[in-house]
Amino acid sequence: xxxxxxxxxxxxxxxxxxxxxxxxxxxxxxxxxxxxxxxxxxxxxxxxxxxxxxxxxxxxxxxxxxxxxxxxxxxxxxxxxxxxxxxxxxxxxxxxxxxxxxxxxxxxxxxxxxxxxxxxxxxxxxxxxxxxxxxxxxxxxxxxxxxxxxxxxxxxxxxxxxxxxxxxxxxxxxxxxxxxxxxxxxxxxxxxxxxxxxxxxxxxxxxxxxxxxxxxxxxxxxxxxxxxxxxxxxxxxxxxxxxxxxxxxxxxxxxxxxxxxxxxxxxxxxxxxxxxxxxxxxxxxxxxxxxxxxxxxxxxxxxxxxxxxxxxxxxxxxxxxxxxxxxxxxxxxxxxxxxxxxxxxxxxxx
Length: 350
What we know:
- It contains eight helices and 15 strands.
- The strands form four sheets. It has a seven-stranded mixed β-sheet with strand order 5-15-12-6-11-10-9, with helices on both faces. Strands 1-13-14-4 form a four-stranded mixed β-sheet.
- It has helices at 2-33, 42-53, 57-66, 94-97, 156-160, 165-193, 207-225, 240-248; strands at residues 100-103, 110-118, 137-144, 146-155, 195-196, 235-238, 250-251, 254-255, 267-268, 275-278, 281-285, 298-301, 306-320, 325-338, 344-346.
- The protein has 350 residues and is α+β, with helices and mostly antiparallel strands.
- The protein has a single domain (94-346), classed as Major capsid protein gp5 (Major capsid protein gp5 fold).
- The radius of gyration is 40 Å and the shape is elongated.
């Protein structure tokens, strides 16, 4: 009876031991494959960030786990910088900078500039002879004043609940678009009024063709503006395509306009500047001109032959209560006076 009882007890003990071992193995396996559950909250994240900085290894592991933005999207915030990327707007006005400037009269949408159209004559006269007589005549050049304006309408929420950067950038961009519109108006007037070169080119001018264009233009502009205080063409305006071509012109591999030295002093045109010098003329790069080699992509001009008159720019803001919107208008007035159209000379593509 005793032996039988001991045998049963032994078997029970062995089975129990196997059960405990199996349970331990299963428990271990469960721990090995289960992902820890962490409390990802802003407060907890801040707490562990501080502890990690003080050397707590567990806190470091917490911060590392929290950095997994795939599982914890939104816990690691995306910041927006105050810097705005704007590769579109520019405030340059090359064609306006290349001509003379004037102040717009205080009133009226037109004004007039007197212009001599016929000179009196003087000729060799014999003794007791009748002097040459031609009446001086004058006329008026009528100049039209134009308004250049742009606007944007936006909600009060956009104004009140967003960064002030929105409004500042809007005003800057409207000012840039105003600059572009006024410069384009002057550029168009120069192209329209300029005398076309009688010598044509089939594509971008070579170095020889460019110098020929400059020499013919100098004579043409002088003949048209010889009565002005400075009767010469002193400015050259080119589109971006012409700018790029001028930089390629070379003499046996030596760039003519990219560098200056005693042996090669044709001018100075740089890829890093929109201003330069070509054959003694102040050079301006104007992106509002055609970007290729078309007519009027190179213009020589006497600055006094054309004048840009301009007043102040204005901002007008209106609150539209019915729709809960705000309208902002940016505008100004300007006028281009073509005093002597032939005071400009342009390239002519065949």
